[in-house]
């Protein structure tokens, strides 16, 4: 009797695990890549004093995260902000390299909604230089 109960529980657990896996696979959306395989990703440009990328993007540049953050910073950046970036080691060459990187990235991956906004933000920083 005990063997039957254990075997039944084992089968029930296996069935539930399989059903859960089947449900989770159906809930996961299919993502179709828009990355152009013919275009190589450019190397990541330099940052002031080799700061890490989150400190550079979200800290120094202040672009937040996602397209909303980039758009908000694009709308609000001032010449005074750019001057503070210069004091912290940002060079015009770095800004131009990042602009080229994000311009290329928006062409390489049209599915990246943030890249074109970051390219525009870098272009605006150049104009406020």
Q: Could you please describe the fold and organization of this structure?
A:
- With 129 residues, the protein is mainly α.
- It has two domains: 1-30; 49-128, 30s Ribosomal Protein S18.
- Helix content is 67%, strand content 0%.
- It is built from six helices and no strands.
- The protein is globular, with a radius of gyration of 24 Å.
- The model has no long low-confidence stretch (mean pLDDT 85).
Layout of helices and strands:
Blueprint: H1 2-27, H2 53-61, H3 66-76, H4 79-87, H5 92-108, H6 115-128
Helix pairs in contact: 3-6, 5-6
Question: Can you give me a brief rundown of this structure?
Answer:
The chain has 129 residues and is mainly α. It has helices at 2-27, 53-61, 66-76, 79-87, 92-108, 115-128.
Average predicted confidence as pLDDT: 85
> In CATH terms, what is the architecture of the largest domain?
Irregular
CATH topology of the largest domain: 30s Ribosomal Protein S18
CATH class of the largest domain: Few Secondary Structures
Roughly how much helix do the residues carry, as a percent range? Answer: 55-70%
Question: Main beta sheet: strand number and arrangement?
Answer: none
Shape: globular
Total DSSP helices: 6
Q: In angstroms, what is the radius of gyration? A: 24 Å
């Amino acid at each position: 009797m005990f063997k039957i109960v254990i075997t039944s529980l084992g089968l029930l657990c296996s069935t539930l695990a399989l059903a859960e896996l089947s449900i989770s696979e159906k809930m996961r959306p299919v993502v179709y890549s828009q990355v152009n395989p013919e275009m190589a990703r450019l190397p990541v440009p330099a940052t002031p004093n080799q700061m890490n990328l989150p400190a550079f993007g979200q800290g120094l540049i202040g672009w937040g995260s996602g397209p909303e953050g980039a758009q908000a910073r694009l709308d609000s950046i001032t010449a005074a902000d750019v001057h503070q970036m210069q004091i912290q080691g940002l060079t015009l060459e770095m800004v131009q390299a990042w602009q080229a990187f994000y311009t290329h990235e928006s062409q390489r991956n049209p599915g990246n909604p943030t890249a074109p906004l970051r390219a525009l933000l870098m272009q605006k920083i150049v104009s406020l230089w």
